[in-house]
Design brief:
The longest helix is centred in the last third of the chain and has 34 residues, at 185-218. The protein is 88% helix and 0% strand. The chain is elongated. The chain is built from seven helices and no strands. By secondary structure, the chain is mainly α. Helix 5 (118-145) packs parallel to helix 7. The chain has a single domain, classed as Up-down Bundle (Methane Monooxygenase Hydroxylase, Chain G, domain 1).
């Protein structure tokens, strides 16, 4: 039995595992609400967009709080230094998924949604859908990491494939961006920043799974 599995089976450390799962659930929620916010913006529904953005803000703040508490639990643990550092790096990478969801929502909130070409909204919706799929696969990867490292590795491969698909969508969106006419240069810049932030969500899902691979292989 690995030191990591044995550690998680202790009562106190079981609480840390629940905190990790709670943190991941909040991160995935932020990504899902970003998709809802972008879909609402594309439909011209600013009210629903703002509500979704507020939920992202709440999820990201709560995830930060859980992350801080989890770091304290890990620091106090009896895990070997290498295993402790592996988990800390994993938690910090996962937290970046929520951070970039929040950053994307901040940009979205200040974009005049009626001044964005409909084709660009469709491109951004596709990007968001891809990031939701990445986040869902990341969640499966982490949830299987302790009990079945082999299944976790397979889920990590899924995340990588999905991230590559998001990269393709991002490239297509940039191609469309060049050919579209925005109502104002500022709007165009903000929308480009929004697409960049959404693409970063998928990147950090992949980065998180790279760290999960390290843990799985060591187990």
């Amino acid at each position: 039995m690995s030191d990591l599995i044995a550690w998680f089976r202790k009562r106190r450390e079981h609480e840390a595992l629940k905190m990790m799962q709670n943190h991941l659930a909040l991160v995935v929620t932020a990504v899902e609400d970003l998709e809802r916010a972008v879909n609402a913006a594309a439909e011209g529904n600013s009210g629903e967009m703002v509500q979704s953005i507020r939920r992202i803000e709440e999820a990201e703040m709560e995830a930060d709080d859980v992350r801080r508490k989890l770091m304290i639990e890990l620091a106090r643990s009896e895990l070997p230094p290498e295993s402790r550092e592996d988990l800390m790096h994993l938690v910090k990478r996962i937290d970046m998924v929520a951070d970039w969801s929040r950053e994307a929502s901040r940009i979205l909130e200040i974009i005049p949604i009626d001044k964005v070409p409909s084709k660009m909204w469709e491109a951004c919706k596709a990007l968001c859908q891809g990031t939701v799929q990445c986040a869902a696969s990341l969640r499966r990867c982490i949830n299987r990491l302790i009990e079945s490292p082999e299944e976790a590795l397979k889920a990590a491969d899924d995340v990588e494939r999905l991230e590559e698909r998001v990269d393709e969508l991002y490239a297509n969106a940039r191609g469309a961006f060049i050919s579209e006419t925005f109502n104002g240069t500022t709007v165009a810049i903000l929308f480009r920043d929004l697409m960049d932030a959404v693409e970063m969500i998928a990147d950090w899902c992949e980065n998180s799974c790279d760290q999960a691979r390290v843990i799985a292989v060591r187990r």
